[in-house]
Amino acid sequence: MKAYVFINVEPGKSTIVAGRLRAIEGVKSADTCWGLPDIVALVETANLKALQDFVLNKIQRVAGVNQTDTHIVWES
User: Fold this and answer.
1) Which of 5, 61, 66, 75 has the fewest CB neighbours in a 10 Å radius?
2) Does domain 2-73 have CATH number 3.40.50.300?
């Protein structure tokens, strides 16, 4: 299952957080952006339950992450 996770971070932390996200297995990309969101990450998991766990227990626990907004890819 693929999803785009829009991530808002603490001011001045985008580059650091994006690097930390890229180091997590399952994160296919983590790109910093101008404006909001600060980072757009593409993630892949086995199923919806795994996605929920991934966002809550991996992405949201990265130091500097303030908020996430997850968009599931239904067709690719």
Assistant:
1) 75
2) no
